[in-house]
Design a protein that fits this description.
With 367 residues, the protein is α/β, with parallel strands linked by helices. It has a seven-stranded parallel beta sheet with strand order 3-2-1-4-5-6-7, with helices on both faces. It has a six-stranded parallel beta sheet with strand order 10-9-8-11-12-13, with helices on both faces. Helix 11 links the parallel strand 11 and strand 12. Helix 6 crosses helix 15. The longest helix has 24 residues. It is elongated.
């Protein structure tokens, strides 16, 4: 099997590809993979680090206002389509899979024009611009939220609900992190707070104002501030070094293992985060980022809230009293917390990678 993957910009577009690639490699160690991304995207770091052959094209997003940059974008698109066609001709893939981000547009478009089987995967509850553009050209559209099918109404015959491949990868990691590494106990109920890979300033500000209350609570708290905020908050709140039940860390690089070890989570509601929470059945308080296209994080969160699989506070309403009340309810009411975790688990798709791989195989054999 020879496959080209493309997806970039954020981890939410890259981790599904990496999860599916890992699944493919376990089933077929001889499978050959090529990943096409950009030089500046996160994929330029994550993909080579994973030992996957990586090539780049140049592309950028379209501005929503009139701009000379859009002329440059069109030029990049045209030239990148030609470069992608050459990559495809050289590699001779059996299928091409896109997981979102601008880089997918020229790669998947080129593949479709060349008659190569093509699949796009949409992780969010609102379809991205690139996937909306590609919908008419590709053979299949895999989705992680059933509601996003509404964004592909003209292509309903192509839509397949698979879930996010990251879910299957996370479920397979049964190991629990040793919380002693962070200075915490492995025997106390634990709350995890994080705002994505870079952290979230507003979440940090509110949670830091609750430090004294959290230290006195009958549970412990681990706060991942994000690298860019860690120094600022350790300097602003030096007393935290003396706390026993509240600890800070700049970043968590073994998130599935840490999630396995904690009881409740406060987080943003990006696609990867929600995939991990539902895969593991973790109750959560979601605070969607307001700084995303079409406010899709709030839509993501609402899909859990409506099924009682999470609580949500929109950032404009976030304050110390409301957040502490929700934390206390979840961390001290065992029945409520367990019910929410069970509802979250019911939304998980533990075989998502296999489902998507089945779609890939089906397209390869039917075209």
């Amino acid at each position: 099997m020879r496959l080209i993957f493309s997806g970039g910009g954020t981890g939410g577009h890259i981790y599904p590809s990496l999860a599916l690639i890992n699944r493919i490699k376990r089933q077929d160690p001889k499978a050959e993979i090529l990943y096409v991304g950009t030089e500046k995207g996160l994929e330029a770091t994550l993909v080579p680090k994973a030992g996957i052959p990586f090539q780049t094209i140049r592309i950028q997003g379209i501005k929503r206002s009139l701009s000379l940059d859009n002329v440059r974008t069109v030029w990049y698109m045209l030239s990148s389509v030609q470069k992608a066609k050459q990559m495809i001709a050289d590699f001779k893939p059996d299928a091409v899979i896109g997981t979102g981000g601008y880089v997918c547009a020229p790669v998947l478009y080129a593949a479709s024009r060349m008659g190569i089987p093509t699949i796009i995967h949409e992780q969010n509850s609102i379809a991205g611009l690139t996937n909306k553009f590609l919908a008419r050209y590709v053979d299949r559209i895999a989705i992680s939220f059933e509601s996003v099918a509404n964004d592909f109404k003209n292509y309903e015959n192509k839509v397949v609900y698979t879930g996010n491949p990251r879910a299957q990868e996370v479920v397979s990691i049964e190991k629990k992190a040793d919380l002693a590494v962070y200075g915490l106990s492995n025997d106390l109920p634990t709350l995890l707070v994080f705002g994505g890979s870079r952290g979230a300033q507003r979440i940090n500000e509110v949670i830091m104002s609750l430090l004294a209350q959290l230290e006195q609570a009958p549970f412990q708290t681990l706060i991942a501030t994000g690298d860019i905020y860690y120094k600022e908050f350790t300097e602003q709140y030096p007393q935290i070094a003396m706390y026993n039940h509240v600890k800070l860390t700049p970043y968590i690089d073994n998130m599935p293992e840490v999630l396995n070890a904690v009881d409740c989570v406060i987080a943003r509601s990006g696609a990867t985060t929600l995939t991990e929470l539902t895969a593991l059945g973790k109750p959560s308080i979601l605070i969607p980022s307001p700084n995303v296209t079409h406010n899709h994080q709030q839509r993501n969160a609402e899909s859990l809230v409506v099924k009682r699989a999470a609580e949500m506070i929109v950032e404009s309403d976030l304050n110390e009293e409301q957040l502490m009340a929700k934390i206390t309810k979840l961390m001290t009411d065992d029945a409520y917390r367990e019910a929410m975790g069970q509802s979250a688990a019911q939304m998980g798709v533990p075989d998502a990678a296999d489902r998507l791989l089945h779609v890939v195989s089906d397209v390869m054999t039917s075209k």
